[in-house]
Amino acid sequence: MFKLKLLTDPRWANIAEGNLEEILTDHAWCEQKATTNAITLITMLPEYPGIITELLNIAREELDHFQQVHEIIKKRGYEFGRERKDDYVGQLFKFIVQGSREDYIVDRLLFAAMIEARSCERFKVLTENIKDEELKTFYKELMISEANHYTAFIGFARKLGDPEKVNQRWEEWLTYESEIIKSYGKKESIHG
Ligand SMILES: [Fe+2]
Ligand SMILES: [Fe+2]
């Protein structure tokens, strides 16, 4: 799936299902961050009106996901906790190059694509392994949406940079991610 080099152990889904209040809180904040990230990318790409249009749509979709998760939390009487720290995303962030403006923006886009790819994979593991019917359906829908975002971010990167170089760099991202993800898969959070 998206050429991810290491797939999540399905037992992670049982850990997640064991604490739905926590996973939903963490998930809601992931969607909030995805919204913010899409808006931040807009500020970096003023000379690409086509990409901005698509980023606006992505930001809206992420905000909609945030709202949907928040509604589920409220409906179930769970407590919506404070923003959770995402160590996985923090580690990915460190891999972004601080080179030329173009290289930096391409890497910001690949960073976004990487999070979409892993999130999508995690939603797949949830939808295939949890028993909660409402969430099974919900995560299936999100899985499709995040897969489209992944494709979009990779596409933007290829528009900005030399496609060959972007593909090479994406391979480096996949390798880096496969190393860090080894220490995850044990906690009730989307990337935990
Ligand atoms: Fe989302
Ligand atoms: Fe997304």
Description:
By secondary structure, the protein is mostly helical. The chain has one domain (12-77, 85-183): Ferritin (Up-down Bundle), CATH 1.20.1260. It has 7 helices and no strands. The chain has helices at 11-17, 20-44, 49-75, 87-93, 101-129, 133-160, 163-180. α1 crosses α5 and α2 (20-44) runs antiparallel to α5 (101-129). The longest helix is centred in the middle third of the chain and has 29 residues, at 101-129. The chain is globular. The model has no long low-confidence stretch (mean pLDDT 96). Bound molecules: fe (ii) ion (2 copies).
Secondary-structure blueprint:
Elements: H1 11-17, H2 20-44, H3 49-75, H4 87-93, H5 101-129, H6 133-160, H7 163-180
The chain binds fe (ii) ion (FE2) (2 copies).
Residues 34, 62, 116, 146, 149 line the site of one fe (ii) ion (FE2).
Q: Which CATH C-level class is it?
A: Mainly Alpha
Number of domains: 1
Class derived from helix and strand content: mainly alpha
Shape: globular
Mean pLDDT comes to: 96
The number of E-state strands comes to 0
State the CATH superfamily name: Ferritin, core subunit, four-helix bundle
CATH topology name? Ferritin
Tell me about the largest β-sheet. none
Strand content: under 5%
State the low-pLDDT regions, or none. none
Percent helix range: over 70%
- CATH architecture annotation name: Up-down Bundle
Cα gyration radius (Å): 16 Å
The helix count comes to 7
